[in-house]
Request: fold
Amino acid sequence: MVTLNVNGKTKSVDAEADTPLLWVLRENLNMTGTKFGCGMALCGACTVHLDGQPVRSCSTPVSAAAGKKITTIEGVGSTRTGQAVQAAWAKIDVPQCGYCQSGQIMSACALLAQKKAPSDADIDGAMSGNICRCGTYNQIRAAIKDASVTLVKGA
Reply:
C-alpha cells in the first residue's frame, strides 16, 4: 500500500513501488486528465507537479511521490495561478486536438508559480519538453503571457 497526497486529499493505493505514477493516477485513482504520450518522459503529456515542480509521471515511480504533494490537471485550477492559466487557455483558444494540453498547462503553471512575468526565453525553457503535434506553440506562448498579465495585476 502506498499513501499519496493528490490534490490535497490523502489516497491509499495498492501498487508496486516501481509502478509509474501515471498509471496509479489513471488506473487506480481514475484521474484520466493526465495523459499517456510516449512513456519515455519525452513529450510532456503526463506532466504533474510534485511539491510544485513539474515531473513526467510516466517515468516517476509511485514510491518517489509518496510523502510529496501531487497536483494534477484536475486540481491545478484550485490555485490562483492555475485559474489564470486555464482562463488564458480558453481566452486564446489554445487547444486543437487537446491531447497535450494538460501537460502544457501543468508546465505553464509551474513556470508562472516561480516567475510571474517570464521572458520569452523563460517560457521557451519551461515549455521545451512539451510537444504539441498540432503546433499550437504560438497560442501557448500568448496564453502564458496573458496569464502572466493577470497574475502581475493581481499581485
